[in-house]
Amino acid sequence: MKHSTPIPQQAEDFPFEFSEAAFARIRQILRERRNFDIGSYKDKYMKRRIAIRVRATHAVSATVYSELLAGSERELDALLKGLTIHVSHFFRNRSTFGRIRDEVLPALFARLHREGRAEATFWSVGCSSGEEPYSLAILLKDSFPEELNRLKISVVATDINEGILDAARRGGYPPDRLHETPPEVVTRHFTANGGKFHLAPDIRSMVAFRRGDLFDYASYLASDLILCRNVLIYFEREEQERILMGLAASLPAGGILVLGKAETLVGESRRRFVTVCPVERIYQKNRLSLY
After folding, report:
1. Which residues pair with 131 in a beta bridge?
2. Which residues contact 106 (CB under 8 A, 6 or more apart)?
3. What domains can be seen in the chain, in order of their start residue?
4. 288 pLDDT higher than 90
5. Is the pLDDT confidence value at 5 over 70?
């Protein structure tokens, strides 16, 4: 078996030494101390996020930073936060939400009605600070009041970062998080105070936030609609396929999966779905699928 010497990251990528040994040490610390394994994520993405903390702590190299990390619970929490948060905003890609409102949900509600269903679950995966599930809740409140009265609809939002989930529950956002939100929606559902826009309690109460790990497949929620947007892009292809297969298993025949615009089905998961809208990356669980 050949053994190669680790090559430090090139200077044009990072203005400091970033050896594979240092990267492996940081991965080990995160796994042992916070039960968070970065091995399934794309190395380039993880290194970029770690590099932010290396610079913030004025460490001269990733090796020096790994030593700092080993001795500091505070820095370990700061790194975990930096690795798991991705910034979003309300009604990101408005055309996607328009398609969900005008086509996806009417067809979904019609199917639930035919099947005599009284409950439905909508799952936002990797919800970060809550903009996506709250956008869905606003859409339901404004466009489907009769269905909200007829059905018990659970909007569940999961993320691996407990700190960001606490922020999501509070529902206060800086103005830039609402730049795609129609002004009348802002007026109806938000109150400006202290430099932030605070979401109305009736919308906040519609969403249940909970910690969720995409690598814990047994914890996946049985759902009728799954939003998993701009999450898969951070993972290697093999993990993308595993996650997609787990999401497929969580949906009934006819259930809907929405991915981000830079994402698509891969591998065996392509046999589990039919495409509803290729532009908006909306897919329906194949009614012929056994899983």
Report:
1. none
2. none
3. 20-84 (no CATH), 94-285 (3.40.50.150)
4. no
5. no
In three state form, how does the secondary structure of the chain look? CCCCCCCCCCCCCCCCECCHHHHHHHHHHHHHHHCCCHHHECHHHHHHHHHHHHHHCCCCEHHHHHHHHHCCHHHHHHHHHHHHCCCCCCCCCHHHHHHHHHHHHHHHHHHHHHCCCCEEEEEEECCCCCHHHHHHHHHHHHHCHHHHHHCEEEEEEEECCHHHHHHHHHCEECHHHHCCCCHHHHHHHEEEECCEEEECHHHHCCEEEEECCCCCHHHCCCCCEEEECCCHHHECHHHHHHHHHHHHHHCCCCCEEEECCCCCCCHHHHHCEEEEECCCCEEEECCCCCC
**Dihedrals phi, psi of 143, to nearest 5 degrees:** -110, -20
227-285 pLDDT, tens digit each: 999 999 888 899 999 999 999 999 999 999 999 998 999 999 999 999 999 999 999 99
Q: Is the pTM of this model over 0.90?
A: no
179/2 Cα distance (integer angstroms): 53
| pLDDT of the residue at 189 | 98
Largest CA distance in the chain: 66
Q: Give the residues across from 193 on adjacent strands.
A: 196
Looking up tokens 């290729």 gives 278
CB-hemisphere CA count at 13 Å for 160?
18
CA distance 135 to 149: 19
Q: Which residues contact 89 (CB under 8 A, 6 or more apart)?
A: 131, 176, 177, 178, 179, 180, 181
> Could you tell me if 224 and 252 are in contact, meaning their C-beta atoms sit under 8 angstroms apart?
yes
